[in-house]
TrEMBL record:
Residue ranges occupied by any CBS domain in the UniProt entry: 20-71, 95-130
Keyword presence, Isomerase: no
Keywords of the record: CBS domain
Protein name: CBS domain-containing protein
Keyword Lipid biosynthesis attached: no
């Protein structure tokens, strides 16, 4: 597991015309999809991040889970301490590639209504996260 690394977000034309690789944060904490919600919340708090990259048993990225998603699952009526991340991930994706243009990635984020996208290589391994600047 790695610590979250942040990079300053440029305000120049790279933000509009560059690629995802120009602005993505390097892969932060990556957790396995069999991790429980409680443990994931602890990892997230320790890493001081709002999301975690989730991978399957073979190391392929299956999605991104946000603090709000974990909290909602924990506060739900069907919650037990055995609920795993794979149980709350709705579907695989969306994802983006490091060579995707920022315009294309922005369109995907707006269409999918997400504020962060996992960036994966051609094999599905996580490279980082593209997140909206706050």
């Amino acid at each position: 597991m790695t610590l979250v690394q942040t990079h300053p977000r440029p305000t120049t034309s790279i933000a509009v015309h560059g690629t995802v690789a120009d602005l993505m944060d390097t892969a932060g904490p990556q957790v396995c999809d069999d991790m429980t919600v409680e443990v994931a919340l602890s990892v997230m708090a320790a890493a001081r991040t709002g999301h975690l990259l989730v991978c399957d048993d073979s190391g392929l990225c299956t999605g991104l889970v946000a603090r709000a998603q974990l909290t909602a699952a924990r506060d739900g009526s069907s919650y037990s301490d055995r609920v795993q991340l794979r149980d709350i991930l709705e579907e695989r994706g969306p994802f983006t590639s490091p060579v995707t243009t920022m315009a294309e990635a922005g369109h995907v984020m707006r269409h999918s209504r997400v504020d962060a996208l996992p960036v994966v290589d051609e094999h599905g391994s996580a490279l980082g996260v593209l997140a909206l600047a706050r």
